């Protein structure tokens, strides 16, 4: 007797012989669903990345909610949407829950005291109909609903707090906000003219150099001539003394004041902010800046404005030290565009948007390149997975009884 084989039964020739053979197993719906879920998540995150604004917020929150609910449900319960008999009931359940979330978003009138019950009402209504066999699925979906409700409840309270300090500004159709759109460079040039003639007397742009304008709104010769008009303090020279020289392309835009104290003294205690990143530093940046520049009104009855301040409902508190600067005909455009208040506001916001995000066009082009390359890699991986690796991965040993 061979040592180590005492526990094996002795099989005679008359007994049935057991042989091992290999055969590829059938692809289960779970495997197909896993691949579809991964592809959905990849496309969803790519879409959200391309649609994100300069402040990190997405332009399509409804699609983000649907994508979050769908991918979270698939990740928590693998058999939730593929097993039977729960396929039909759970699909209807997810649709109802997503519809409730979108309906709450479209109302735009949520209270700060936002609780979980508004988004979990479809869960409570459906819980009794699914039966005891769907308890795990309902529990997973309830957790997803609680998470989504808490997330949007926090967002709602933040928006309500923002609305207490200033009137919510409308959303304007900026031409460079689309996925396939770029900046209006003629508008950037006009906006730079508005900034130079109207805004530069009080506001600085310390992060922008003259060379940044080359190829965007001006030629190199035009920018050199523009920079040579200013005097820049430089030095020390060979004698250890400071001197002034004409500006050059590498110089930053000139500062209107020597320091913050001088700026506050000249503006009655108010400090004019730097405009280099103003469209990213303010909530709903571009819309806010445009609404602020064009939103000066007479104070309503019962509202007292201190002397030296001006009423603007879009500014937090309603009283702003900056007077109305954009008036019809304040500048004369080189291309003959009528210099109306709205046109000047649109042009200067386009210029400030470019100053805050000069890489936006390159980022969009790079994003499409990455999506194209990843799509090719995904097709190659799917081909290798389906026709090459699946033969080895899906192979298993089957005990077959033959005569």
Automatic annotation (TrEMBL):
It holds the Pfam family Cytochrom_C1. The keyword Transmembrane applies. One of its GO terms (biological process) is mitochondrial electron transport, ubiquinol to cytochrome c. Residues 186-293 form the Cytochrome c domain. Keywords: Electron transport, Heme, Iron, Membrane, Metal-binding, Mitochondrion, Mitochondrion inner membrane, Respiratory chain, Transmembrane, Transmembrane helix, Transport. GO terms for molecular function: electron transfer activity; heme binding; metal ion binding. Binds 1 heme c group covalently per subunit. The keyword Transmembrane applies. Component of the ubiquinol-cytochrome c oxidoreductase (cytochrome b-c1 complex, complex III, CIII), a multisubunit enzyme composed of 10 subunits. The complex is composed of 3 respiratory subunits cytochrome b (MT-CYB), cytochrome c1 (CYC1-1 or CYC1-2) and Rieske protein (UCR1-1 or UCR1-2), 2 core protein subunits MPPalpha1 (or MPPalpha2) and MPPB, and 5 low-molecular weight protein subunits QCR7-1 (or QCR7-2), UCRQ-1 (or UCRQ-2), QCR9, UCRY and probably QCR6-1 (or QCR6-2). Belongs to the cytochrome c family. This is Cytochrome c domain-containing protein.
């Amino acid at each position: 007797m061979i040592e180590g084989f005492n526990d094996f039964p002795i099989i005679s020739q008359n007994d049935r012989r057991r042989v091992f053979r290999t055969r590829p197993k059938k692809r289960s719906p779970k495997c197909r669903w896993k691949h579809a879920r991964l592809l959905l998540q990849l496309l969803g995150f790519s879409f959200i990345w391309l649609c994100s604004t300069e402040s990190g917020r997405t332009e399509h929150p409804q699609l983000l909610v649907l994508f979050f609910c769908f991918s979270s449900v698939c990740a928590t319960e693998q058999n939730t949407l593929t097993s039977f008999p729960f396929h039909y009931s759970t699909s209807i359940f997810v649709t109802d829950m997503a519809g409730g979330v979108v309906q709450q978003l479209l109302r735009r009138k949520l209270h700060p005291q936002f609780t979980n019950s508004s988004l979990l009402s479809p869960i409570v209504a459906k819980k009794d109909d699914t039966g005891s066999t769907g308890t795990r699925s309902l529990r997973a979906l309830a957790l997803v609903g609680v998470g989504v409700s808490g997330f949007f409840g926090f967002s709602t309270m933040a928006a309500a707090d923002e609305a207490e300090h200033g009137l919510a500004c409308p959303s304007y159709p900026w031409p460079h906000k689309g996925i396939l759109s770029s900046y209006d460079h003629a508008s950037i040039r006009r906006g730079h003219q508005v900034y130079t003639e109207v805004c530069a007397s009080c506001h600085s742009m310390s992060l922008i150099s003259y060379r940044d304008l080359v190829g965007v709104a001006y030629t190199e010769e035009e920018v050199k001539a523009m920079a040579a008009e200013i005097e820049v303090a430089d030095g020390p020279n060979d004698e250890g003394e400071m001197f002034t020289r004409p500006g050059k392309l590498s110089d930053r835009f000139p500062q209107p004041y020597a320091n913050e104290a001088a700026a506050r003294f000249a503006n009655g205690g108010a400090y004019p902010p730097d405009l280099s990143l103003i469209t990213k530093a303010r909530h709903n940046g571009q819309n806010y800046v445009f609404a602020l520049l064009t939103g000066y009104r007479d104070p309503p009855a019962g509202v007292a404005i201190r002397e030296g301040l001006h009423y603007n409902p879009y500014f937090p508190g309603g009283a702003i030290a900056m007077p109305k600067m954009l008036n019809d005909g304040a500048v004369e455009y080189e291309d003959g565009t009528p210099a109306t208040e709205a046109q000047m506001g649109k042009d200067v916001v386009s210029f400030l948007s470019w100053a805050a995000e000069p890489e936006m066009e390159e980022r969009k082009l790079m994003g499409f390149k990455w999506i194209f390359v990843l799509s090719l890699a995904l097709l190659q991986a799917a081909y290798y997975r389906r026709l090459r690796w699946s033969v080895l991965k899906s192979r298993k040993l089957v005990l077959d009884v033959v005569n």
